[in-house]
Amino acid sequence: MAATKTSKEQKYDRQLRLWGDHGQETLENAHVCLINAIATGTEILKNLVLPGIGAFTIVDGNTVSGEDVGNNFFLSSDSIGKNRAQAATELLQELNSDVSGNFVEESPDKLLDDNPEFFHRFTIVIGVQLPESTCLRLGSVLWHASVPFLVCKTYGFIGYMRLVVQEHTVIESHPDNALEDLRLDQPFAEFKSHIQSYDLDSMDKKDHSHTPWIIIVAKYLEKWLSEHNCQPPKNYKEKEAFRQFIREGILKNENGIPEDEENFEEAIKNVNTALNPTKIPSAVEDLFNNEQCNNITSQTPSFWVMLRAVKEFVHNEGNGSLPLRGTIPDMIADSQKFINLQNVYRKKAIQDVAGVSKHVESLLQSVGKPPESISENDIKLFCKNASFLRVVRCRSLAEEYSVDSVNKDEITSCMDSPDSEMVFYLMLRAVDRFYQRHSRYPGVYQVEEDISRLKLCVNSLLQEYSLNVNIKDDYIHEFCRYGAAEPHTVAAFLGGSAAQEAVKLISHQFVPFNNTFIYNAMSQTSATLHL
Amino acid sequence: MADAEEPEKKRRRIEDLTEKMAVDGGHKDGGCDWDGRWNHVRKFLERPGPFTHPDFEPSTESLQFLLETCKILVIGAGGLGCELLKNLALFGFRLIHVVDMDIIDLSNLNRQFLFRPKDVGRAKADVAADFINRRIPGCKVVPHFKKIQDFDESFYRQFHIIVCGLDSIIARRWMNGMLISLLSYEDGVLDPSSIIPLIDGGTEGFKGNARVILPGMTACIDCTLELYPPQINFPMCTIASMPRLPEHCIEYVRILQWPKEKPFGDTSLDGDSPEHIQWVFERAQERAAEFNITGVTYRLTQGEPVNKETIPAVASTNAVIAAACATEVFKIATSAYIPLNNYLVFNDVDGLYTYTFEAERKENCSACSQVPQDLQFPPSAKLQEVLEYLTENASLQMKSPAITTTLEGKNKTLYLQSVKSIEERTRPNLCKTLKELGLSDGQELAVADVTTPQTVLFKLNFTA
């Protein structure tokens, strides 16, 4: 093990603790496309360049204006009049020499006209402040090329993000409060025989006080089952009785006073979660029922092949359970007892991985692919995370915008609450409509006259989608007042949010949002909407 | 907000303002501005709106206030600090001071974007100020390569708003205490002009929070101290004789083996020294092998104990939280909108989640309630027990409290840890009972600690 770490490892140390070396590798192989180098865009890119993405390309046909420089850290006043993509690339590039920066002095519309395949090369495309028509056109190209598309917009004190990805699989979702996989309700053979090796009644005090709580609960559960017709404690009353049962097992000194046995206290504290029945999470069951899981072809991505293999395992050697995770939490115990117990779980987990691997092999064989197509390490990681697998599917922009498939229910039910952020989504749609009609955004020069024009757009929007909702005049006034301003702090908030979603999409770790995020900087609130 | 103007007058006034804005992109300052520079900001300062703060008055003077008068103090020039300086500068704040006692490390560069590899070893405050001042013409950030405790109230009093991007709860509490000490009361009524708003941000991995504190009016840092649970330490018996995890092995070497073997002479373990870490790593591996424990890695060794130096950190979370904080600074400085009331929590592990709530003031808060704190002990209790209470109680969490009192008209130090000679002299007091020490029911004890710039008053209540 090298004493000196490479300077890259040192530089990225704090983030490697979050997504590991394998996560970092996916970032370093990624090529991110940003459309429009306005503040929101450059802030997003800054938060991707700093952690070391492989490359970025900025697409922007505009020249830098004085207004642009005013709120953008990556444009300087001497770049006024120059192409915006080029100017921003220079100042973003110098943030991190590991990253390769490129620019295309072209509008996205022109690229879509002449060469839409240009966008196929990217790991992810981030479009900022795109007019509706451009957004929909690009959305369609990227949807069919299976390139994730992140649409972002800062409009006054409102931030907006929309994720468009057909199917995004996550093996390492890193849930915040994961339950342990201890199998106390259905002990496997090796665990049972390991418990047999303990006789709590004949142990000396030192051993008794340093027996892992898992063993204690298992032993007492065995006794309970034999005395209660094989029925485990189920309701509060029974669990209390079970806790008391364990408490009575605490050693007493010569005066009959219970000794200080922390391991028994741990056992009592953990009774509730320990007695949780081992169950396959419904989210995983749903995945088992997916078309991709049940119809394996040579084109099937490895996620689904492994999932199918796990499903086969569950229905065969697994006896209805997922492969064992193999880890146990730390607990009061002496080193040997703990390590021995830990090894029982570890060995069983390794066995289960081998079982799943066999299924993977035969599935790959059945579609004519070599077994090396999916590595041992990948299968191991998959099994360890079997309870936490997630798949995110977003509706396309076409679906969101079509009168036939607009999510009316979501919109109207949100609008029933007075404080819902949904009103800002509708206002952003209305503002896009204004732009389509007048080739500018409302309130850029005058507020008062544009209010009535914007109101017409709001009404036509609601009418077109048959949305029976009411939007107060205050919001129409406020959105005119904004004059399409892009205050830097709102752009920066979105910059951090969008960049992290991009990292999730690139690394396939942690779970992306689905599918619309609205940030209200006036009230410092936010919401995720499903549109 | 009252808007009793006739519609026609209002319309004409708005037209005047917007016309002025479309034509006059610059303003009258030193000539470093260009056309349109402040367009994005001005729409929020010069136009009336339905959601503004009741005190808001559209005016061209607000921008001047930001550019020429408003003084902001940024505490910390690290992950949050760099972002805060950028955000404030781009909003037009020019009179900014920044305090940071640290120098730049290579591991800072994944998020502290004002620093480059060539800056490693230099003071963060200096490099950050320099970068901002060069990139944002007109901005005059003044750096202070110092600890916050190096300044007294005369320094802090000069600022309109203070915003913190700290990585230490102790430092936050000290800052909190300092601003509370600046409050002045007349006949028990708080003088609003003595309040300096404190915006506080914190991040860890993918989680963060931002809060607005109006000292003397809203919940302060100490009011919500229970939100910061004390750090978990491994029990000594586990480390000394019963390790189970690789972390236990590392702690053994760090806490027990290093002081015994003194591998590099009389120096203490330096988390930034690769040689030190390598030594700990190798010894930890040996110990782990003894107990058949796997999993000791260099990275884990470097990370133990989990402290500020190795808390996971990324650019994105810092960007979000600093943005929220800077938005609040802007709102308070300009009344553009009603400020956050008063606590925002953010987490983007699974999707993006925010939660906004009003943290409540604690009636008997040891920092801001002005009520002497209650200490309930029997006269037979030893001073040691009082000391333990001060450090272990979740609402107090003091680090090394110094306890003094007045006995027979004279000031007496009961126990003080931070000065070696006094510690030795007063150590025997720890084993004495409160009665033996001459303390009586209702006695007032003054406690000083690194968590507060002012002493905290306690009232001793004898129990049976």
UniProtKB/TrEMBL annotation, chain A:
PANTHER family tied to this protein: NEDD8-ACTIVATING ENZYME E1 REGULATORY SUBUNIT, UBIQUITIN-ACTIVATING ENZYME E1
The organism's taxonomic lineage, starting at the top: Eukaryota, Metazoa, Chordata, Craniata, Vertebrata
Domain of life: Eukaryota
Entry-linked SUPFAM superfamilies: Activating enzymes of the ubiquitin-like proteins
Presence of the UniProt keyword Membrane in the record: no
GO cellular component assignments: cytoplasm
Assigned protein family: Belongs to the ubiquitin-activating E1 family. ULA1 subfamily.
Domain THIF-type NAD/FAD binding fold: 12-525
Protein name, entry field: NEDD8-activating enzyme E1 regulatory subunit
GO biological process: protein neddylation
Function: Regulatory subunit of the dimeric UBA3-NAE1 E1 enzyme. E1 activates NEDD8 by first adenylating its C-terminal glycine residue with ATP, thereafter linking this residue to the side chain of the catalytic cysteine, yielding a NEDD8-UBA3 thioester and free AMP. E1 finally transfers NEDD8 to the catalytic cysteine of UBE2M.
GO molecular function: NEDD8 activating enzyme activity
Sorted UniProt keywords: Ubl conjugation pathway
Pathway given in the UniProt record: Protein modification; protein neddylation
